[in-house]
């Protein structure tokens, strides 16, 4: 099984179109130690030709160009994307669906009932796409135990894991959350038994989630913010990280205690990778102290094109 990171940035990408924070200015200036990233998406394959796209980011066309593995060119019109699965209804995870409207057959879309509702009401992409390729929706289970198998991805199973995070601002569930607004995904190679947990939007830890995370050989988890008040201190938002559904890497001491770093320190996984990195996050400075602290804890930072073999 191969997982390929198509987009490792959070919403807005890196650099963000209207942002001149330290990181965005540095990456635009081509400074050493800063690498541009597109918005939040991964692709998974068992055979190298057929891929599950997990999240359809607004940068999907650039991502498909940058990842020719997803275009096997077996026919005049073809794609390696056999199905798309959504972790939530956030803009950075769904608006790419519109870019795939020219499909030769209805789009195979896997998402929870609450995400499907948001994509049928607040952001009616499902209705819009019905005027193009059409959508064949497969509901994702949210009991945290029922696995999904997907045609052309033989040997792989996908277990949605309900997460405490946030539905998008346009959703009526933004402040009245429902199970299924946000999920993570345990991806299992049934031939090797190896597992990866992908969770780009993880707001709060629970004992159940901790138990699931302990089963993963690779963790590919929410790395949006370094601290709770990152956006507040920069004057970009009045909202703490928790209000946006993201567990920051560290508490106010800045030493890894009280956040995702401390949590990952407890995990037996071989690889611990942060993904869905906001453009303001200091870990995007590859020569900075925060990146060095991650390295001391054996934590990696995802980049576009990263590959994980399991
Ligand atoms: C988030 O993860 O908080 C959202 O995706 C932000 C956004 O894209 O608007
Ligand atoms: Mn996001
Ligand atoms: Zn920025």
CATH architecture: 4-Layer Sandwich
Fraction of residues in H or I helices: 10-25%
When the domains are counted, the total is 1
Shape: globular
Tally of contiguous helical segments: 9
- Briefly note the structural class of the backbone: alpha/beta
Name the CATH class: Alpha Beta
Reading the helices and strands in chain order gives EHEEHEHEHHEEEEHEHHEHEE
Strand content: 15-25%
Average residue-wise pLDDT: 97
Q: At the third CATH level, what is the topology name?
A: Metallo-beta-lactamase, Chain A
| Biggest sheet overview | 7 strands, mixed
Rg is: 18 Å
Q: Count the beta strands.
A: 13
Side by side, the strands of the main sheet go 6-5-4-3-2-1-13
Question: Termini, distance in Å?
Answer: 5 Å
Uncertain segments are: none
Can you describe what's shown?
This protein has helices spanning 22-28, 60-66, 91-94, 113-118, 125-129, 207-213, 230-233, 260-265, 289-296; strands at 2-7, 41-45, 51-54, 81-85, 107-111, 135-139, 156-162, 183-189, 195-199, 218-222, 271-275, 299-301, 307-309. The protein has 310 residues and is an alpha/beta fold. It has one domain: 4-Layer Sandwich (Metallo-beta-lactamase, Chain A). The strands form 2 sheets. It has a 7-stranded mixed β-sheet. Strand 9, helix 6 and strand 10 form a beta-alpha-beta unit. The longest helix has 8 residues, at 289-296. The mean pLDDT is 97. Residues 10-11, 40, 90, 92, 201, 276 line the site of manganese (II) ion (MN).
